[in-house]
Structures
1.
Amino acid sequence: MPIKQITIDPLAGAAYLKIKEGKVAKTKEFSEEVFLDFDVRNHLLGIELLNPCCGTLRKVAKKYHLSILDKAASPLEKILHIA
């Protein structure tokens, strides 16, 4: 499952990873700074990272069995200049 789009808001220090097209039916808090958007069928649509950190992204990937997200951590590190 490829990431469709990564949106970075440098002023807010946030990132949004669009996983799948669809209408958001609910948002679940994964952690204090990570929110997951789901459709009515409970398919993951996107991930909002309020304080982007690749370790957190890897935790989401592991919990939802999304290997592509773990692979996205490295490019995200380069975009956000984080380690």
2.
Amino acid sequence: MSWRTYLLQTRLLRSMGLLAEPGPTLLQVAGRVGFESASAFARAFTGRTGETPSDYRHRVRGGEAP
């Protein structure tokens, strides 16, 4: 696994934990895991998981509103 792949995977795994918590916005989550923009974060997240960060958050929270 390349360093770049490892770093991306680590950032996305951390973001999943943050998205499951109440409180931080998507922009805050993106910044906390090292993305410069919410759109770059959303593209990377969707590309790896097949769902948007918002859809993931909604699913793991059991339909709870963000």
3.
Amino acid sequence: MLVVVVLLLASSIAYVFREQVIMVVLEPYAAASGDQRLMYLNPAGGFSFIFLVTLYAAIAVTIPALRGSW
């Protein structure tokens, strides 16, 4: 139960700071590609990208709580 609470809390916080998190994730891409932008291939692509980035950031924060609960 603790892991689920930590995951929900971490994903909420990651969503609040989504611009900063996405900038950190896309920094290597921007350095390698120059001035090119991401292209979404479906209408929900932008939302899906933001959702997955915030979820992965939350999972990265939740891993210590998962290890502590075993």
4.
Amino acid sequence: MEQSAKDWIENEDSNCRDERVERLEWLTNNIPSKEYLIFHGGLIAKYLFEETRYCFVYAQFLATIILGFSFIEHTLTALFFASGRNDLEKANISKILSEANKIGWLSDEEYQHILKAKKIRNTVTHFRKPLDKETIDFKAVIENKHQYEIIEEDAKYVLQVMLKLLDKNAI
């Protein structure tokens, strides 16, 4: 017998509630504790931020990775545009990151963290041959973890990088 939409939602809510609460508590503890958060990419950047958080809490980890990295890209590109660097408006993220590091907007450590987040995003958004060293399946075998655990850890990493960038520009 097929479950009604309402029953399906109620079942999801009851079975996953504790994990969602744990993720929300982690998120709440890691959001910058500044008076004002600034979204340099405008309304889209704010929506990317909000939807990334929502996806993480609701265990939509692939979406968290993609949206979180999109927030990073929007924010850095918007900062360059606001500073008068119109030449970077449609630049790829590698160029944006390189320029941000070169002029000191990103420390070497921040730059490396964002590069790792980019690699995580690329693994999700770009096809890799089965068991390529960059696939989630390969990482799961090497680290002796379930694929879902790898995806969750990767989502949390991208989210942490996103939150550090947000914190850096908050007041």
